[in-house]
Amino acid sequence: MTTVRTAIVIGGGIAGPVTALALHRAGITATVHEAYPATASGVGGIGGTLALAPNGVAALRTVGADEAVTATATPIDRSVMAVGRRRIDLPTLAGVPPLRVVHRAQLHRVLHDRAVAEGVAFAYGRRLVAVEQTDIGVTARFEDGSTATADVLVGADGIRSTVRGLIDPAAPGPRFTGLLSFEAVARHEVDAAPGTMTFAFGRRGYYLYWPEPGGGTRWGANLPQQRPMSLVEARAVPADQWLETLRASYGDDDPGRELMATSVADELQVVGSLQIMPPVPHWHRGRMVLVGDAAHAPSNSSGQGASLAIESGVQLARCLRDLPDVASAFDAYVRLRRNRVEKVAARAARINHAKAPGPVARTLMPLLMPLLVRTAMDPERTIAHEQRYVIDFDAPVTAEPALR
């Protein structure tokens, strides 16, 4: 039985509220400390739409948030690959619920409200600057001069995590994928049934789209880019200038041309340079530990980033609940998670490479894609182990190497 009774959770985006909810269910009182003010758009508001895989929704079920999240999401039950004028149905995984797409801000709002309803406390305007550890606890010091003390501290503070640097000053930072991302809803109606997501390789860039409930077509575009841009840099460029760049890039594509032409600058989401986390050597030190993007952030090509973050929060709570000391709980948590998340990241990296094909690859793609769909894209081999993963929250965790 654990001796941990209280936790400080740094970060109020997605992983933070889920971790706090799971800790609450495990009998551990957690307070979420968020750097942004409560009314700032930064709390869950940065970024556009994200995907929740079936395993992510299953993990949300353990904290009672699955129904509220899926009610705000759009189900995707068919995927199509478009290469030039060809449309190729991608094989689907049998026996699993559909993928769900949801706006990050909506997901954050649902998770926050669920956590508050369960009694989880949130403190805003708390930017972490330092941590002090002892044998019996940990104290967080914030930029505003306030402090908080608990048994453990959880870094759920995203890809640019402060906690990661406090655990290991030599820890790697995020890496640029070579892609710049945008999103909007076009007035153009594509010839696709509701629930169909199309992945398209244009002449100059990759994009995807699906019919938006209520009308129009939601699209996301990944343009190849030579150098990374921070979100602040990318959003400093006028939106109408970005839209002109997109219209020039996709002007030869169908329906890319129509999607860009019928989108308006005021509604363009400049998501910025896509970044991933390389393997992080140390997920914990003393009484500090990482969850979510702070420890593992695969490319959005994986369709698993948010789902893995949710899973990690749930698994951490199980380990802290069942193991007798902090060190053994953190070790067990890493053994449960590292191999799984790094396999997903490796698969996503291969997809990223395909999103920016050279001229020769673009020429061969219409010929090779049908063969790849029949062979290399077998869902039972590539994604079944990811999407059918379900955490048994009530099962006890042990310190043995063979963990469940």
From TrEMBL:
Single GO MF descriptor: monooxygenase activity
Record Gene3D superfamilies: FAD/NAD(P)-binding domain
Record's keyword terms, sorted: Monooxygenase, Oxidoreductase
Domain of life: Bacteria
All residue ranges annotated as the FAD-binding domain in the record: 7-347
Matching InterPro entries: FAD-bd, FAD-dep_Monooxygenase_BioMet, FAD/NAD-bd_sf
Entry protein name: Aromatic-ring hydroxylase
Species classification: Bacteria, Bacillati, Actinomycetota, Actinomycetes, Micromonosporales
